[in-house]
């Protein structure tokens, strides 16, 4: 089973782009504490409706819990094999935002995911 849960803060506003079939894709970096004074950065990717929700409600600094699966990207650069691990988000729970997308009010029961 490939399941991961990560809690952290967005390092940037979600970037939105679209697949060749027109499906929305959102991507952002998540800062996760991995020790007393150490922070790890994990790329998170969300698709379709969840991607639209990320673009509408999340922002740099927002604290979230991401539940998803790990995915390894592989590519070649300058003749060297490279790889990166990212999380494909299945759900995202909002822990703290600045209220963007909530019409000035932030209520947990209004959050769509």
Pick out its properties.
9% helix, five-stranded mixed barrel, globular, OB fold (Dihydrolipoamide Acetyltransferase, E2P)
Descriptive notes:
This protein is mainly beta and 113 residues long. The protein has one domain (4-103): Nucleic acid-binding proteins (OB fold (Dihydrolipoamide Acetyltransferase, E2P)). 9% of the residues lie in helices and 55% in strands. Strands 1-3-4-6-5 form a five-stranded mixed β-barrel. A hairpin with a 2-residue loop joins strand 5 (63-77) and strand 6 (80-96). It starts with a strand and ends in a 17-residue tail after the last strand.
CATH architecture: Beta Barrel
Share of helix, binned? under 10%
Counted up, domains total 1
Could you tell me the CATH topology label.
OB fold (Dihydrolipoamide Acetyltransferase, E2P)
Rg, rounded, reads 15 Å
The helix/strand order is EEEEHEE
How would you characterize the largest beta sheet? Answer: 5 strands, mixed, barrel
Structural class of the helix and strand makeup? mainly beta
The CATH homologous superfamily is called Nucleic acid-binding proteins
Strand order of the largest sheet: 1-3-4-6-5
What is the straight-line distance between the termini? 23 Å
**Which segments are poorly predicted (pLDDT under 50) over 5 or more consecutive residues?**
102-113
Instruction: Please tell me the overall pLDDT.
Output: 87
β-strand amount:
over 45%
Question: Could you name the CATH class?
Answer: Mainly Beta
Number of helices: 1
- Count the strands? 6
Question: What would the principal axes of the Cα set say about the shape?
Answer: globular
């Amino acid at each position: 089973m490939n399941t991961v849960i990560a809690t952290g803060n967005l390092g940037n506003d979600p970037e939105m782009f679209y697949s060749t079939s027109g499906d929305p894709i959102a991507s952002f970096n998540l800062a996760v504490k991995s020790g007393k004074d150490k922070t790890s950065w994990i790329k998170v990717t969300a698709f379709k409706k969840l991607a639209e929700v990320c673009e509408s409600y999340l922002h740099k600094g927002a604290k979230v819990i991401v539940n998803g699966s790990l995915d390894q990207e592989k590519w070649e650069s300058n003749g060297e094999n490279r790889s990166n691990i990212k999380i494909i988000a299945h759900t995202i729970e909002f822990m703290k935002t600045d209220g963007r997308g909530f019409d000035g009010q932030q209520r947990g029961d209004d959050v769509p995911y």
